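Let us practice reading a record.
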Amino acid sequence: MARFALGIDGGGSKCDALLVDEKGRVSGHGRGGPTHVYYDPPEVIAASYVEAIEQALEGVQDAEVWSAGHLPEGAPRRAIAARNRHLQHLPAGEVDTAFASAQEEWGLIVLAGTGSFVHGRTAEGRELHFGGLGPVLNDYGSAYEIGLRGLRAAFASDWTAARRTSLAEAIPRALGAPDRKAVFDLVYWKGLGRRQIAALARVVNQEAEAGDAVAVSCIQRAADELAEVALDVVRELEFEEISFPAIAIGSVARNCRLWWERVCERIRAAAPSARPLVPALSPAAGAALLALRAMGVEWREEVVARLGGG
C-alpha cells in the first residue's frame, strides 16, 4: 500500500494542503478559504479544509495517509477517509510547522501574515509566545496593520507636501473604487473587513518598492512594531549573546523585503549573532515534513530538496 504525508496549514486568509510521497516528491496541492475561528463560522472553516484536502488528494485512493497540522474533526477528516481507509494524524500548530519549514528545532519565529505573533524557543525547551490576539489587541506589524497604515496615509495625502503619496491613487484602484470618497463609503458603510484591509499590504509594498517615501514609512513603522515584540522575546529568553535562527513566516515576513530587512536590523542590533532565515519551504511543506518524520522518514537533504522543488 502506498504511503503519503499530508501537510495542512490553515490561516486567516487561506488553507493549504500539500501531499508528498515517502521520497518527498510532491503528489498534490490544494488551497481552500480562510480558517480563522474569530472571523469565520464553523461551516466555512470546515469547507475550507475540505476544499484544500480534496484538491491535494485528487487521484490518490486506498493509500496510507499520515497528516500533520491542524485537522478538525468531522468533514475535513471524512474528506480523507472517503478516499483512503488508513489515516494517522499528528496534531501540530503554527509554531511546530514553522520550525519544521526551516528544519530547526529552536530559535525565534517572527510570523507576519494577515495577523502576527512572535514565538521563541530555547535549546532547552523553554518557550515564550507574544501576540496573535487579532487586530484590536495587537497584530503588530501584520498585513492588516500595513494595509491600515496605507489607508490612513492615502486619506492624509492632501494635507501637506510631505504627506503626498501615490497610495492616494493606488489604494482606490486596488479596491475597484473610482476615488477616495468611494473608499470612505467602503470603510464606513459597507464594512471593509480585516482580510480586505490586510490585502492592501501588497499595494503598500509595491508603492514602497517603487520609491514612494510615505509607503516606505508605512512598511518600516509596521516592522518596528513587531520588531519591538521580537526584542521582548529575545531579552526574556536571553538570546542576546548566542547564535539563533530568526525565522520569517507569513506572507509579509517572507515576501516584503523592506519589512524583513527592518526587522532583522532591529533584532541584530540587540543580538548580533542572530541568523535571519527565510525558509525555502512553506508552512504546509513544514507540516508535511512532520508527517514524514512520524512515518519514520528522515529529513535527508534530498527529501527536503524534492519537497521544496514541488
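A brief commentary: The chain has two domains: 3-98+282-308, 106-278.
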